[in-house]
Amino acid sequence: MRSYFLAKIGLTRIAIMLTLFFVSRAASADVVKIVVDDTIHPIVAEHIDRAIQEATRTHADALLIELRTPGGLMTSMEQIIQKILASPIPVIIYVTPAGADASSAGFFILESADIAAMAPGTNAGAAHPVRGDGVAMDPVMKEKLENYAASLMRSYTGKRGRNVEVAESAVRQSKSFTSDEALSQHLIDYIAKDENDLFHQLDGKTITRFDGTKTVLHVAGKPVHVYEMTLKQHILTFLMNPNISFLIFAIGMLCIYFEFNHPGAVLPGVVGFVAVAISLYTLNLLPLRSMAVVLIIASFGMFILEAKFQTHGIVTTGGIVLMVLGALLLVDGPIPQMRVQLWAALAVAIPMGLITVFLMSIALKARRGKVLTGEQGMIGEVAVVCAPLAPRGKVFVRGELWNAVAPTNIEAGEKVVVRKVENLVLYVEPVHQLVSHPSVAG
């Protein structure tokens, strides 16, 4: 009985200790931090979404997003804004360090935060929507897209207590603002020289969330937990660079081409298929133009034609031009950082064209060359008659005795040339029959 009461007291103490532990953890919750130093694309949107989930799971005081971006895809931007507005944890967005910017889609994201802050020497704005290829839009489409972007900005900026009219001017007039201008015009809430300065300014402040609830921030001196990307996200972020994706796609096509020319090698075919599959997967996450892929594939066809017909580089030049055009049109990115650059297109297309033509030339020469092994390799060889051919006999060629058949009787010691091999029998002709005698003019 006594042991029962001792066990009960022990369990009670453990329960109290666990309760005190979790209460103390809640009272000293961390600040979760992520760094977004990239264009805005689906992997960045996924990373921010998971960071919000992590901050919610750990009951963090706030989520700090350190932001520096030239912009990106509108679809990914909208997903990020939706997650931030619905976040149960206050979201602080801080543009830093000096020289960084939050342009285009980055400005939309900055304005959606519970707390928007910038470091001295940073800028934000220039949020006018553009076409992926940078070409001017027709007036009707431009007006529709501009009105949509402006209405999106208005839909949450006012509820965040910021200057709607000035924020809208960044969309309609592509205005950009320094940190001082953004603060004076009520586009951001704070200017802070570093993270600690920002937290000290925010500590004890009451903020109004997007749903109207009030929250007091306690962030000064709190541990900051950096939430890193997963290995998968790091790899996909690297591969989603359009220049890298284009390079991998071109290398994959070259490997597949090599496999077709050398059947049975296996490894080039496997590597090529994997490379093409990976590049198409990552490109599919970006605004991909399918006709550009067709142009790149067609360029390889022109390289093969050059090797076959020897046009002295004319068809090769056409293939290089096709590959460069295909590369430049491959990704319909809204900003230059999300498109294949000209230097990358030339750096891949020119060597790829020369390598493909070289490999194809070697393959064609090998196919057209004389066969030197096996029965077919015997054709054209000169043999010496060992046993008289009447018309059957034996000849000596390549260090071996062979049964042979001649169209006429030939004595031993005469030389003959092999014309055909059939069922291990050589069909030969006298050598003198092959020599044409010149006619003498009288």
What this model shows, in words?
- This protein is an alpha/beta fold and 442 residues long.
- The chain has three domains: 2-229, Alpha-Beta Complex (2-enoyl-CoA Hydratase, Chain A, domain 1), CATH 3.90.226.10; 240-368, no CATH class; 376-434, OB fold (Dihydrolipoamide Acetyltransferase, E2P) (Beta Barrel), CATH 2.40.50.140.
- It is 48% helix and 17% strand.
- It is built from 14 helices and 16 strands.
- It has a six-stranded parallel β-sheet with strand order 8-5-3-2-1-11, with helices on both faces. Strands 12-13-14-16-15 form a five-stranded mixed β-barrel. Strands 4-6-7 form a three-stranded mixed β-sheet.
- A hairpin with a 5-residue loop joins β9 (206-208) and β10 (214-216).
- The longest helix is centred in the last third of the chain and has 27 residues, at 342-368.
- It is elongated.
- Mean pLDDT is 84; it is low at 19-28 and 434-442.
